[in-house]
Amino acid sequence: MIDSLKDTLDYLYYKYNCVEFIENDPISIPHSFEEPLDIEISGFMASTIAWGNRKAIVKSANRMMDYMGREPGRFVKEASEEELNHLRSYVHRTFNGEDFISFVRALRHIIEKWGSLGSFFERHYTQSEDMRVVLSEFYREFFMAEHTPHCRKHISSIDKGAACKRLNMYLRWMVRRDEYGVDFGLWQKIPMSALYLPLDVHSGNMGRALGLLKRKQSDWKAVEEITQTLRQFDPEDPVKYDFALFGAGIDGFLKNNE
Asked: How far apart are the C-alpha atoms of 193 and 185, rounded to whole Å?
């Protein structure tokens, strides 16, 4: 059973973990930049609004980059109050202009203190060797900067049992590395084995259908369960199957192969 399931997962991995999948996915946003800081920040902002229709997400994330002058690194570090005020007209679903300003201030705080987002995550992982601790510390550090209460809803708290889907997706983008060129592999001090699956509706439904996940609620306990199961198939890189489960869920893989 395990061999058969691994064959299915590997088939889906090779099918969806390819550059052709990038164009219509939020990961296309950081792929439009070359400088590491631009990739980090654009990726973080794109992952922040990554819920709902992917086409709408990509469109809104591109607008977000336009608001930042297509220079997200420079904007976060140097934007004047006038430039920040310009962000007030931005909106994507429940993420509004005030949230945008708060996020820029938070990212600036982290960059001024740690040098980059990558430095923060790598330093805290090196100290704890536990991504759960890192996610908790990130939530605390992020909201040390001046912010509106409303923006807190856009960063999940692992301490409250949230699945932290968008943060885990962002970490996958920045940490994972292979020969297929989808993820960036910028943060090499964090091993791929430390990552957790970005659990959403599609990957959760596929995971349950394939017997990878029994828990019905999509919370942090479910994330730990499905990630631990995937470690049986690739202990060094369990999150490689993220695109596989997500893409197969969207395309109705099981229904098409009944």
From this structure: 13
* pTM of the predicted model as reported, rounded to 2 decimal places: 0.94
CA distance 136 to 215: 23
| Residues pairing with 95 in the sheet | 92
Backbone angles phi, psi at 50, to 5 degrees: -85, 70
Contact (Cβ atoms closer than 8 angstroms) between residue 116 and residue 170: no
- The C-alpha R_g of the chain, in whole angstroms, comes to 18
Q: What tokens does 38 get? A: 């631009």
d(CA 124, CA 154): 22
Q: List per-residue pLDDT tens for the chain, 258 residues long.
A: 446 889 989 998 999 888 888 898 999 999 999 999 999 999 999 999 998 888 999 999 999 999 999 999 999 999 999 999 999 999 999 999 999 999 999 999 999 999 999 999 999 999 999 999 999 999 999 999 999 999 999 999 999 999 999 999 999 999 999 999 999 999 999 999 999 999 998 899 999 999 999 999 999 999 999 999 999 999 999 999 998 898 777 666 555 454
Which among 16, 36, 33 is positioned nearest to 25, based on CA atoms?
Answer: 16
Q: Which amino acid is at 73?
A: G
**Cα–Cα distances in angstroms (integers) from residue 157 to residues 35, 142, 176, in the given order:** 29, 11, 23
Neighbour-count burial of 54, counting CB atoms closer than 10 A to its CB (0-12 exposed, 13-18 middle, 19+ buried): middle
